[in-house]
Specification:
Layout: E1 5-9, H1 20-27, E2 31-33, H2 44-56, E3 62-67, H3 69-80, E4 87-91, H4 107-112, E5 127-131, H5 140-150, E6 153-156, H6 173-184
Parallel strand pairs: 1-2, 1-3, 3-4, 4-5, 5-6
Helix pairs in contact: 2-3
Length: 185
C-alpha cells in the first residue's frame, strides 16, 4: 500500500516559517501544504476550495494535519465533500464562536465570511484533536465538546498555549507521533 500523503492545512496566518507545521512539511518526504491564498484570505469558502484543490492534486491516501482555523477549514470541507481521508490530526482548534483577543478577526467578521456556525457533524474519517489547557483561542471544555461532536479522540497536550511560535513552539515532535498513529490505522 502507498503510504499516505501528509497534507498540512494551515490556519489563517498561513505558512509561518518557524511554525511546527512548516517545519514538519520540510521534514517529512511525503508532506505537502495547502497553498496560501492571494485573495479572500478571510473567506471560508476560498479556504475550503484551496483545501479541495490541494486534495485533487494527490493520488492515494491522505492524512490531514490541521492547526487552528485550519481545523475549521477541515471540518467545513468534510461537510461538503466525500473524498476518503485516511485520518486527521486536528491541533489547537480555534473556537471561532467565541471572541478572540485583539489582533485577531472579530466574531462578526468570521460570521460575515462564512465561518459560523462551527460544524458539529461527525467526521467520516478517524481524527485526533490535540488541545491545550491554556489556549487563548479555544477553551479546553469547548474544544472537547467539538471533538466529541466530530467523533474525534481528544488528547489533552497540556499547557502549550496556541501551539504556535508565540507560545514557544517551533518544532512539535508530538505531531509526528500522532501522524504515525493515524498512518497505522
Amino acid at each position: 500500500m502507498t503510504p499516505p500523503t501528509i497534507l498540512i492545512v494551515p490556519g489563517l496566518r498561513d505558512h509561518v516559517e518557524d511554525h511546527w507545521q512548516t517545519l514538519l512539511a520540510k521534514k517529512l518526504p511525503n508532506a505537502r501544504s495547502v497553498a496560501p491564498l492571494e485573495h479572500d484570505k478571510l473567506s471560508r469558502a476560498a479556504r475550503v476550495a484551496a483545501l479541495d484543490q490541494a486534495l485533487a492534486e494527490i493520488d492515494g491516501p491522505v492524512v490531514l494535519v490541521a492547526h487552528s482555523a485550519g481545523v475549521m477549514i477541515t471540518v467545513h470541507w468534510a461537510q461538503q465533500h466525500s473524498r476518503p481521508i485516511h485520518g486527521a490530526l486536528l491541533a489547537a482548534p480555534a473556537d471561532l464562536e467565541s471572541p478572540f483577543p485583539p489582533g485577531y478577526p472579530t466574531t462578526e467578521a468570521l460570521r460575515d465570511n462564512g465561518w459560523l456556525p462551527i460544524p458539529r457533524q461527525p467526521l467520516s474519517f478517524p481524527s485526533i484533536v490535540a488541545a491545550s489547557t491554556n489556549d487563548p483561542l479555544g477553551k479546553l471544555e469547548k474544544i472537547t465538546e467539538l471533538a466529541i461532536a466530530w467523533g474525534s479522540r481528544i488528547e489533552n497536550i497540556g499547557a502549550v498555549g496556541h501551539l504556535n511560535p508565540a507560545a514557544g513552539f517551533g518544532d512539535w515532535p508530538g505531531a509526528e507521533d500522532y501522524i504515525r498513529e493515524l498512518v497505522g490505522n
